[in-house]
Design a protein that fits this description.
Radius of gyration: 21 Å
Strand content: 15-25%
Number of helices: 11
Subcellular location: Cytoplasm
Shape: elongated
Subunit structure: Homodimer or homotetramer.
CATH class of the largest domain: Alpha Beta
Pathway: Carbohydrate degradation; glycolysis; D-glyceraldehyde 3-phosphate and glycerone phosphate from D-glucose: step 3/4
Protein name: ATP-dependent 6-phosphofructokinase
Helix content: 25-40%
Catalytic activity: beta-D-fructose 6-phosphate + ATP = beta-D-fructose 1,6-bisphosphate + ADP + H(+)
CATH architecture of the largest domain: 3-Layer(aba) Sandwich
Largest sheet: 7 strands, mixed
Order of helices and strands: EHEHEHEHEHEHEHEHEHEEHH
Number of strands: 11
Length: 343
């Protein structure tokens, strides 16, 4: 079998481990061939690809980023976009299946190619946001939480030194998993997530409670958080290739409001792409490797239109429809647990 691999969307710690797991499983167990498409779906529609050998993936599991490159190209756009052109390329090159490693946008595109053109595709969930409903956890999430937690620890020392309120903004798009986990791990005094809009009055109350105890307040906010009067998440950066708003900057909105209401000097820190860079944690290396191996096994079972997923500690396959049909949001009971620790 000849398998085409691509990594699309935002980069993520663990992508290279998926590639390594897939290539080793395919070559050692099945005698497969592999090609890699450069820069995600761009490599597919522009017919830019190269062979991947066992030698190419040596020691790759600990390396951050992706050797294939990534982009947010839409495979339905451009001169050679769309299922007919992609099928022609696969037929010409003898590519039996395309494995798309990506998040919501990438997998939605893969689902459309399968539904509308019968393209043989398989998916591997990739997102630091942990927002895909069909998998318990996605690789990259653990690394992002670890980086955010370290940032909280560092901000706490400078906040204590100056008696300031620090507002740390983390990624997550429209879910609050990174904020929730890093905030709990780092001992944040308030965690603000998209699933739980909070008024500025409530935020100020938590901040003042912390100051009354002689502490420097530390607030963690997810980029998709909204105040009740906001109709949508804060975004000033336009749209991506899938017409989704690029979020970011809510911490810069909140910090001045907190300072104005409390008189406490407040500073905003937007962690941004630091969360997506660097070496993956051991957990993410193992999970990514297992998913890479599993997707090759699924290819040999001809489970087209499916995605490998983590359920408990087991790797399963589910329909990509299920993966992209809804978001994996933070449930009320998880936020209620954390809320006990606020203020």
């Amino acid at each position: 079998m000849k398998i085409g691999l691509l990594t699309s969307g935002g980069d993520c710690p663990g992508l290279n481990a998926v590639i390594r797991g897939a290539v080793l499983e395919g070559i050692i167990e099945h005698g497969d061939e592999f090609v890699g498409f450069r820069d995600g779906w761009r490599g597919v529609v522009e017919r830019d690809y190269f062979p991947i050998t066992r030698h190419d993936v040596r020691g790759l599991s600990k390396t951050g980023g992706t050797i294939l490159g990534s982009s947010r190209t839409n495979p339905f756009e451009g001169e050679f976009g769309g299922p007919d052109n992609i099928q022609w390329l696969m037929d010409r090159e003898g590519i039996d299946v395309i494995v798309a490693i990506g998040g919501e946008g990438t997998l939605t595109a893969a689902r459309r190619l399968y539904d509308e053109g019968g393209i043989k595709v398989l998916g591997v969930p990739k997102t630091i946001d942990n927002d895909l409903a069909a998998t318990d956890y996605s690789f990259g999430f653990d690394t992002a939480v670890q980086i955010a937690t370290e940032a909280i620890d560092r901000l706490r020392t400078t906040a204590d030194s100056h008696g300031r309120c620090m507002v740390l903004e983390v990624m997550g798009r429209h879910v609050g998993w990174i904020a929730l986990h890093s905030g709990m791990a780092g001992g944040a005094h308030a965690i603000l997530i998209p699933e739980q809009p909070q008024s500025i009055d409530q935020i100020v109350e938590w901040v003042l409670q912390v100051r009354e105890r002689g502490r420097a307040p530390l607030v963690v906010v997810a980029e998709g958080f909204t105040l009740p009067e906001m109709t949508e998440a804060h975004s000033t950066k336009g749209l991506d290739a899938f017409n989704r708003p690029r979020l970011g900057g809510i911490a810069d909105v909140l910090a001045p409001l907190i300072e104005e209401r409390t008189g406490i000097e407040s500073r905003a820190t937007v962690l941004g792409h630091i969360q997506r860079g660097g070496e993956p944690t051991a957990y993410d290396r193992v999970l990514a490797t297992r998913l890479g191996m599993a997707v090759v096994k699924a290819a040999h079972r001809e489970e087209w239109g499916q995605m490998v997923t983590l359920r408990g500690t087991d790797i399963k396959t589910v329909s990509i429809h299920e993966a992209t049909g809804s978001l994996n949001t933070v449930p009320q009971e998880r936020y209620d647990e954390a809320k006990v620790l606020f203020g």
